[in-house]
Amino acid sequence: MSDLHRLSVSELVGGLRARRFSSVELTRAYLERIDRHQGTLNAFISVTREQALREAEAADAALAAGGGGALTGVPIAHKDLFCTRGVRTSCGSRMLDNFVSPYDATVVAKLRGAGAVMLGKTNMDEFAMGSSNETSYYGVVRNPWNTALVPGGSSGGSAAAVAARLTPGATATDTGGSIRQPAALCGITGMKPTYGRVSRYGMVAFASSLDQGGVLSASAADAALLLREMAGFDANDSTSVDREVPDYVAQLTQPLAGLKLGLLKEFFDKGLDAENERRVREALALYEKLGARLTEVSLPYLPLSVPVYYVVAPAECSSNLARYDGVRFGHRCENPRDLLDLYRRSRGEGFGAEVKRRVMTGTYVLSAGYYDAYYLKAQRVRSLINQDFIRAFKDVDVLIGPTTPTPAFEIGAKTSDPITMYLNDIYTIGANLAGLPAISVPCGFVRDLPVGLQIVGPHFSEARVLAVAHALQRETDWHTRIPQGYA
Amino acid sequence: MYDFALVFSLRHAQRESPMALTREQLASIAALARLELSAAEIPVYQHSLSSILEFIGALDAVDTHGVAPMAHPLPGLAQRLRPDVVTESDRHEDYQENAAQVAAGLYLVPRVIE
Question: Of A179, A388, A467, B111, which sits with the fewest C-beta atoms within 10 Å of its C-beta?
Answer without folding.
Answer: B111
